[in-house]
Design goal:
alpha/beta; Helicase, Ruva Protein, domain 3; five-stranded parallel beta sheet; about 45% helix
């Protein structure tokens, strides 16, 4: 996409002359003849560069310059017919990249504009490189664990290259966020990032979605359409769930990656683009190759810089950092207050395996924020979390004693040892009967003790929600107080 330049000049003949100077450069221009038009154009046109006259009929040009947001402001070249040294210094202090005094020669004008646009690209690149891992965050990726620091380092090392990045990981681990980080850390950060989910598009339409089509190319093609490849020109094309792509289309994708050229559906004309490829899958790509569902040559073409995103259960305390960030984000979306999490909530989050990874954590947090209006998150607000098959297998390996084999001699105040199948059971009489809640309490306390006082782990082995155990413990404490 060509750079956009806003010319703010009250003299029409000069404004049109400056516009004609820029025609050979191929930039896109718009003219504003006063300050009011300029302020409107800043919102609508979103220029990369402003050619700004100081003496406007309704406002001083420097007032416009001072109103620009320093973080997102376009480059500014200040023009005046009454230039002074003091005015030039003031303009530069306010953020102008250059200062030109009228009249201006065409060549000098074009060189100054070109330098300002280069400076904007350089600032954007520097800003991207400076946005490094800090306080547990790298772009939109969150987590300070060692496994994530390794991911950040790979992204940083690969950012300057055009080499293809191949991201693997379970569903919900943040593969698209990782792809965006690759894009934002690269010199292409100010160019398009186009994401395409190959699993979400019907097989007969995916070629059109990637390469585009001409009007009439197939039934329903009522107009020309630019595909993702054309939209990503100069930037990054992210192909998510790549292993879902039809084997017949993979050969066309391979040629596109090798040559940078493709044909729209219904066209014989080749289009050449400059695209960096980032791909992702939640499958084992080598297994897909062995099973004949993914081309081996395409795999080796794409598998240049691999990034393996770890599941959330392997990221330790990252889950707390991510949860805190999600609570802050979702509380704003749902117009709720959020001040923090209790230690019980943190322990619960740390003890759970999160089979759905970050996506499941986000859904859980949204559930909490929608159903509860409290600003401090407590354990009893957490919804029941489904147990994975791995947790059920773990429970079978670490079974705690069952209540029916615990025998208590109430009349003597003495407790027998745990009975086993080979032990001889004592006669059971009415005097041995205890309240059910007391048997349950002792059983749960034994389970918690067996898990080294880790309540979330005990809850997982008992196949109940941790919030259930916390509520029972609280009720027992209240009974003792009363």
């Amino acid at each position: 996409m060509p750079p956009k330049i806003l010319i703010v000049e009250d003299t029409e003949s000069l404004a049109l002359m400056y516009q004609s100077y820029l025609i050979p450069t191929g930039v896109k221009t718009r003219i504003a003849y006063n300050g009011e038009q300029a302020m409107c154009a800043l919102q609508e046109f979103e220029p990369d560069l402003i050619i700004l006259d100081v003496m406007l009929p309704d406002i001083n040009g420097l007032d416009i310059l001072s109103s620009l947001d320093s973080d997102t402001a376009p480059q500014v070249i200040v023009l005046t017919g009454h230039g002074t040294k003091e005015m030039a210094i003031k303009a530069i202090k306010l953020g102008a990249s250059d200062f030109l005094e009228k009249p201006i020669e065409a060549e000098r004008f074009r060189i100054t504009v070109n330098n300002a646009l280069k400076l904007k690209d350089l600032k954007q690149t520097v800003k991207s490189y400076q946005t490094t891992y800090e306080n547990g965050k790298y772009f939109d990726l969150i987590g300070s664990s060692s496994v994530m620091q390794s991911v950040y380092q790979i992204i940083k090392s690969a950012s300057a290259s055009k080499a293809t990045v191949f991201i693997t990981g379970e569903s919900g681990t943040g593969k698209e966020l990782c792809a965006r980080a690759v894009h934002l850390a690269s010199p292409r950060a100010n160019k398009p990032f186009v994401a395409l989910n190959c699993a979400a598009i019907p097989k007969d339409l995916i070629e059109s979605e990637i390469f585009g089509h001409l009007k009439g190319a197939f039934t329903g093609a009522i107009a020309n359409r630019e595909g993702a490849a054309g939209q990503a020109d100069g930037g990054t094309l992210f192909l998510d769930e790549l292993c879902e792509m039809d084997i017949n289309l993979q050969s066309k994708l391979l040629r596109f990656i090798q040559t940078g050229c493709y044909q729209q559906v219904g066209s014989e004309k080749e289009v050449k683009v400059d695209v960096r490829f980032v791909c992702a899958t939640n499958r084992d790509p080598l297994l897909e190759v062995q099973e004949g569902r993914f081309r081996e040559d395409l795999y080796y073409r794409l598998h240049v810089i691999p990034i393996a995103l770890p599941p959330l259960k392997q990221r330790g305390k990252d889950v707390i950092e991510i949860a805190d960030a999600l609570f802050k984000k979702i509380s704003k979306e749902e117009k709720r207050q959020y001040k923090g999490m209790s230690e019980g909530v943190k322990n619960l989050f740390l003890g759970y395996s999160w089979p759905g990874n970050v996506r499941q954590l986000e859904n859980t947090i949204r559930n909490i924020m929608v159903l509860h209006d409290e600003s401090y998150i407590e354990v009893d607000m957490i919804p029941a979390l489904p147990q994975s098959s791995n947790q059920n297998q773990l429970a079978s390996l670490h079974q705690v004693p069952q209540p029916e084999v615990i025998i208590t001699a109430v009349d003597t105040g003495l407790h027998t040892e745990q009975a086993t199948m080979n032990d001889t059971l004592l006669p059971f009489t009415q005097a041995d009967i205890e309240p059910l809640w007391l048997v349950e309490k002792r059983y749960i306390e034994q389970a918690i003790q067996a898990c080294d006082n880790n309540i979330p782990k005990a809850a997982a082995l008992l196949d109940v929600s941790p919030s259930t155990l916390y509520r029972k413990i609280k009720s027992w404490e209240e009974m003792q107080v009363s």
